[in-house]
Design brief:
The complex is a heterodimer.
Chain A: H1 2-45, H2 49-54, H3 68-76, H4 79-110, H5 116-128, H6 135-145, H7 151-175, H8 179-187, H9 192-199, H10 204-220, H11 223-228, H12 237-247, H13 252-285
Chain B: H1 2-5, H2 8-14, H3 25-52, H4 65-68, H5 77-109, H6 117-125, H7 132-143, H8 158-173, H9 175-186, H10 190-198, H11 203-231, H12 235-241, H13 254-263, E1 264-265, E2 268-269, H14 272-298
Antiparallel strand pairs in B: 1-2
Classes of the chains: A mainly alpha, B mainly alpha.
C-alpha cells in the first residue's frame, strides 16, 4: 500500500520537475515583456539625444551619458509641486476612506438595526457603477460649492469613489472579529465607540487591502484632475506629466526624463512595500 | 448580572425606549460620514446626470429626445455606435488576451516546486502601478517610427491603432487578474490536488476537472470587473491619441466620446445635455453587462466552499 502510493507520488512529481525549467523560461520571458519597456525608458533617459536614436538598446556609457533631459524637466515644470499635490490628495483620501469606510462597515457588521441589509446594498451598488458617469453633475456641484481647482474637490470625489469597495471588504473582515472579544469589552464597561477602536487593529490586513485599492486609482487618475482641478496650483503628477509630455513630445530626452521621474517614486515604494501590498491585494481578492 | 451580558446593540433595538428611533445613535454616527459623502458626491450626481439627459441645455424637459439622437436616424448615431463597437473590441482584447494570460501565469506560478515565484509575481505586477498616462507615453515612444525600433506607425493607421492601444492596456493590467487568480489558486487545498495526482490524473486533467471549476466564480468576477473598467476607460486613449481619438475616430471609445460631448472639441461646443445623455447610455450598457453577469452567470455557476 505504502509502496504503491510512493511510486505513483514519485511519478506524479517527476513530470512537473521536467517542465519546471520550461515554466521558468515562460515566466522569465513574460517578466521581460512586463519590465522591458520600463527599463528601456529609464536607460535612455540617461543618454544624450544622439545616443537615444543611434542605439536605443545600449546602456549609457561615459560618452553617451547625459542629464540634459532632467535639466529641462526641472527648469520647465514644477514636478515637485505636482508630487506634493498628489501626495496630499492621496493621503487624505486614503485616510478618509479607511476611517469612514471602517466605521460604516463596523456598523453594518456589528449591529442588527432596521434597514441594515438595505443600507449594505445601497453602499455596495457603488462598487458596480463608475463614478465618472456622474461627472457632468459633479462639475456643476463643485462649481456651486466653489470648490473647482481645490484639493478638497478631488478628495471628496475620490472618497465617495473609494467608500463602496472599502465598506464591502471591511465588513467581511469585521464579521470575523470574535464576538466574545467585543462582549467581554462590553462587560468591562466599554462604550460602542471604544469597541470600534478595539476591533480596528484586528482587521489590519483588511485595512491594508483597502489602502492599496484606494491609493492606486487616485494617484493615477487623469479624468478628475483634468476636469475638476486643472489649475497650475492643484495639478497632480499624472495631469502634470500629461501636460508636460504633450508639450514636449518632440524633445525626447526631456520626455524620457519626465517619464522616469514619474515612474521611479512609485516603483521604489512598490519594491519596498510589495510584500505588504500584494498580501493586501490578495486578502481583498478572496473576500 | 445576566442583564449586563446582553450586548448593548441588541438591547437598544429590542428595548421599548427605542420605538421611535429604531436605529441607535452610535450606529448613525458610524454610518453618517460614509453615507453623506457617498450620497452627495456619487449617488446624487449619478441620478442628477440621468435627469439632465432628459433636459435640453436650456433646462427644458425634452423627454427621450436626447437619447433618440444616439440611435439610427439621430445626429450622433454613427459616432455613438462607432465608439460602442470600438469599446467592445477594446473589451474583447482584455477578455480574450489579458484574463486568460493572467490565469495562465497564475497557474504557472502555483506549480509545486517552483522557486522564485514571489519575485516573478512582484515584477509582473509592477506595470499595474504606473499611471495610464505614463504607460501611454512609454509605448508611444517605443512604437514611434522616429525611434526606429518598429518601422510601421502602428498607432497612426486606422486598422492597427485600436488593437495596439488595447494591447498596451492589456500589458499594463495583466497583473490584476494574475493576482486575483493567484489568490484563488493558493486557496485550493493541496490535498485535493494531491489526491488527484495520486490517482494518476495528468496535470492537464487536474486543471480542467478540479482547478478550473473552482476558479469559475473568480473568472466571473474578473470578467465583470474588466467589463466595467473597460467601458469606463478614457485616460489611455486621451493621452496617446487625444480627445479626438484618431486616426479618424478609429480609437474612439465611450469615455472619449463622453469627454468630447461634454467639453466640446475644436469647432463644436460642449453640451451638458449631450454629455449627460452619453453618460446615461454608458450607464445602461454597463448595467446590461452587470445584469448578464448576475443572472446569466453568477446564479448558475456552482461555488464550492473550501
Amino acid at each position: 500500500m505504502t509502496a504503491t502510493t510512493a511510486t505513483t507520488a514519485n511519478r506524479g512529481r517527476k513530470r512537473p520537475r521536467v517542465s519546471i525549467a520550461g515554466i521558468h523560461i515562460a515566466l522569465f520571458v513574460y517578466t521581460m515583456v512586463a519590465l522591458g519597456p520600463v527599463l528601456l525608458i529609464v536607460m535612455n533617459s540617461l543618454k544624450s539625444r544622439r545616443a537615444i536614436f543611434d542605439s536605443p538598446f545600449a546602456f549609457p556609457t561615459s560618452e553617451t551619458f547625459s542629464l540634459k533631459g532632467y535639466e529641462t524637466v526641472f527648469d520647465r515644470a514644477a514636478f515637485e509641486k505636482y508630487f506634493l499635490n498628489s501626495i496630499v490628495i492621496t493621503v487624505v483620501t486614503v485616510a478618509a476612506v479607511i476611517l469612514f469606510g471602517a466605521m460604516a462597515a463596523h456598523a453594518l457588521a456589528e449591529y442588527n438595526f432596521t434597514g441594515n441589509t438595505m443600507m449594505g446594498l445601497y453602499l455596495a451598488v457603488g462598487v458596480m457603477i463608475p463614478i465618472r458617469l456622474g461627472t457632468v453633475s459633479i462639475l456643476k456641484l463643485m462649481v456651486k460649492l466653489g470648490l473647482v481647482n481645490t484639493h478638497l474637490s478631488l478628495i471628496l470625489v475620490y472618497t465617495a469613489m473609494g467608500l463602496p469597495l472599502a465598506v464591502f471588504i471591511l465588513s467581511q473582515f469585521f464579521r470575523q472579529v470574535p464576538q466574545s472579544l467585543k462582549d467581554a469589552a462590553r462587560i468591562d464597561g466599554a462604550g460602542e465607540y471604544r469597541i470600534f477602536w478595539l476591533a480596528m487593529p484586528l482587521i489590519r490586513p483588511g485595512l491594508a487591502a483597502v489602502g492599496v485599492f484606494t491609493m492606486l486609482p487616485v494617484w493615477n487618475d487623469l479624468w478628475f484632475p483634468l476636469i475638476l482641478a486643472p489649475g497650475e496650483s492643484t495639478k497632480t503628477v499624472t495631469l502634470g506629466a500629461q501636460v508636460f509630455l504633450g508639450q514636449f513630445v518632440s524633445d525626447w530626452p526631456s520626455v524620457l526624463a519626465a517619464l522616469t521621474l514619474a515612474m521611479i517614486p512609485i516603483l521604489i515604494l512598490y519594491l519596498i512595500f510589495s510584500r505588504q501590498m500584494l498580501r493586501g491585494i490578495m486578502s481583498g481578492a478572496i473576500k | 448580572m445576566t442583564q449586563t451580558t446582553v450586548p448593548k446593540a441588541v438591547k437598544t433595538v429590542t428595548g421599548g425606549s427605542a420605538k421611535r428611533w429604531r436605529v441607535p445613535r452610535h450606529v448613525i454616527v458610524f454610518l453618517a460620514p460614509a453615507v453623506i459623502i457617498y450620497t452627495a458626491f456619487m449617488v446624487y450626481p449619478l441620478l442628477d446626470s440621468l435627469r439632465l439627459s432628459l433636459l435640453s441645455d436650456e433646462g427644458v424637459f425634452v423627454g427621450l429626445e436626447n437619447i433618440r439622437e444616439l440611435f439610427p436616424g439621430g445626429n450622433l448615431s454613427n459616432t455613438f455606435f462607432n465608439a460602442l463597437g470600438n469599446n467592445f473590441m477594446f473589451f474583447a482584447f482584455h477578455f480574450f488576451v489579458q484574463n486568460p494570460m493572467g490565469l495562465l501565469i497564475a497557474v504557472l506560478l502555483t506549480q509545486p516546486g517552483l522557486r522564485g515565484q514571489g519575485i516573478y509575481r512582484t515584477l509582473i505586477f509592477a506595470p499595474t502601478l504606473l499611471s495610464v498616462v505614463i504607460v501611454g507615453f512609454i509605448w508611444q515612444l517605443i512604437l514611434s517610427p522616429l525611434w526606429g525600433i518598429i518601422e510601421t506607425p502602428l498607432l497612426g493607421k486606422t486598422a492597427t491603432a485600436l488593437p495596439t492601444l488595447s494591447l498596451m492596456s492589456v500589458w499594463q493590467y495583466l497583473g490584476i487578474p494574475m493576482m486575483f487568480f493567484y489568490a484563488t489558486l493558493v486557496g485550493i487545498p493541496e490535498e485535493l490536488l494531491e489526491a488527484a495526482r495520486v490517482d494518476g490524473a495528468s496535470g492537464w486533467k487536474i486543471f480542467w476537472k478540479i482547478t478550473f471549476p473552482l476558479m469559475l466564480p473568480m473568472i466571473g468576477i474578473i470578467s465583470i470587473i474588466t467589463y466595467i473598467a473597460n467601458l469606463n476607460a478614457f485616460d489611455l486613449i486621451y493621452s496617446v491619441q487625444g480627445a479626438l481619438a484618431g486616426p479618424e475616430f478609429s480609437t474612439d471609445i465611450m469615455g472619449t466620446l463622453f469627454y468630447r460631448s461634454f467639453f466640446g472639441q475644436q469647432l463644436q461646443i460642449g453640451s451638458t445635455a449631450v454629455g449627460a445623455t452619453v453618460a446615461t447610455a454608458m450607464f445602461v450598457v454597463i448595467l446590461i453587462g452587470v445584469l448578464v453577469y448576475l443572472f446569466g452567470f453568477q446564479r448558475r455557476v456552482t461555488t464550492y466552499e473550501l
